[in-house]
Design brief:
Elements (H helix, E strand, L loop, with lengths): L1 H24 L7 E9 L9 E4 L2 H13 L19 E9 L4 E8 L9 H15 L3
Antiparallel strand pairs: 1-2, 1-3, 3-4
């Protein structure tokens, strides 16, 4: 009986260690973002597709929080994360990093509701709020 308990304890500890290792290793390292350029477009008459740029630390921190929340590698954005539909909201994003590199990607949001959110829906909503606040 003691042998069974000892084996069970070892298995539980091994599973906990494995889960912690997998979760801590899955977060991409992101070089500090120093600027964000974005523009949005949709098939709605009169919708502004103006380009915007920000270096505001608070805005960059808000976007970085979304990136971290969903463990997104913005330098190699996985396009399969985008919603699949027609007539959605497209956001073209260019990130500028402290090491002078850039990353470009497109977020496509069809308004799909997920109880816990998605990177696509959260990022689209953030850029929409910024565009609205900037008067475009």
């Amino acid at each position: 009986m003691r042998l069974f308990a000892a084996v069970a304890a070892v298995v539980v500890v091994a599973l906990v260690v494995l889960i912690v290792a997998l979760n801590s290793g899955s977060r991409p390292v992101v070089t500090t973002i120093t600027g964000i350029q974005y523009s949005q477009s949709t098939a709605v008459a009169g919708f502004s597709d103006s380009a915007h740029q920000t270096t505001d630390p608070a805005r960059i921190a808000a976007f970085t929080a979304i990136v971290k929340k969903y463990s997104i590698d913005v330098t190699q954005f996985d396009q399969s994360l985008n919603d699949v539909c027609t007539g959605g909201l497209a956001t073209n994003v260019t990130l500028e990093f402290a090491d002078s590199k850039t990353a470009k990607f497109r977020v496509y949001d069809c308004g799909r509701i997920e109880p816990r959110g998605t990177f696509v829906s959260d990022a689209s909503a953030l850029f929409t709020r910024w565009a609205t606040a900037d008067g475009a």
